[in-house]
């Protein structure tokens, strides 16, 4: 085999290997691989209260996007109280409306509720991965979160429970009648359980949010208090219904359960439920099309150099 033929074989093999690895690595993430569902209850507060959610997703191997949806839920004293199915429908519409400002090709999640049922699911679309979802519930309703039959530990989904003062939320500043910063809950309690089992109740009156979280962690052995946030509350600057991290939350990094239920029975408090999925489709795990194109161009240039380039012969 001549030297030129050896080069041709080598370069051809290289092209085939890169092409094969590109095709395997660039398979699109299937629809619905990442899902979080909430079973919604009626508001426990008498007036209009806020319920919001923020989702963050990644285009396979590329950039991330974030969207926040906000809705108001009517309590028992309103002319038309919002039912459990109504809460689910409002959340789904709010999430969809939050993505309107983005190009259609960037909208990587779908929010859907089952008509007439008190449940709503956020799912990734094909070619996208969902990896952060925050539910901000100030309704004092009973909410159950699950992964459609998967356990949080098996799916490697971390769960965060952050108890906050309702009046501390930036978006609520215009609605809350609070003259000074709150330092303790006004009264009531919080009920929490996993897999529909025993319900643990935590008294809240006169306690700080950190003390309440410590009590929750002590009731559920798989929970632990953390002084660091599970993930940032916002990345793209959408600060609606957000608040600075208060320095404490309960983290369930390996929760061996398929659902978690929480109901706040204290009008001065709200619950931020955070779910962190594995970010398995980050850019470093993928050979991008542009990288493949550049490498192919380099190979073509080498072929041209060896077989198309002939130095001009000097005249005698």
Share in β-strands: 25-35%
Could you spell the SSE succession in H and E letters?
HEEEHEEEEEEEHEEEEH
**Whole-number mean pLDDT:** 82
Secondary structure category: alpha+beta
Radius of gyration: 26 Å
N- to C-terminal separation? Answer: 34 Å
Give structural notes.
- The chain is of the alpha+beta class.
- It has helices at residues 3-25, 84-98, 209-219, 289-307, and strands at 35-39, 48-59, 64-74, 109-113, 119-124, 128-137, 142-146, 158-165, 189-194, 200-203, 224-226, 249-252, 259-264, 269-276.
- Residues 18-25, 285-292 and 309-316 have low confidence and may be disordered.
Please outline what is shown here:
With 316 residues, the chain is α+β, with helices and mostly antiparallel strands. It is built from four helices and 14 strands.
Highlighted features:
316 residues; alpha+beta; 4 helices; 14 strands; 29% strand; globular
List strands and helices in order, with pairings.
Layout: H1 3-25, E1 35-39, E2 48-59, E3 64-74, H2 84-98, E4 109-113, E5 119-124, E6 128-137, E7 142-146, E8 158-165, E9 189-194, E10 200-203, H3 209-219, E11 224-226, E12 249-252, E13 259-264, E14 269-276, H4 289-307
Antiparallel strand pairs: 1-5, 1-7, 2-3, 2-6, 4-5, 6-14, 7-13, 8-12, 8-14, 9-10, 9-13, 11-12
Helix pairs in contact: 1-4
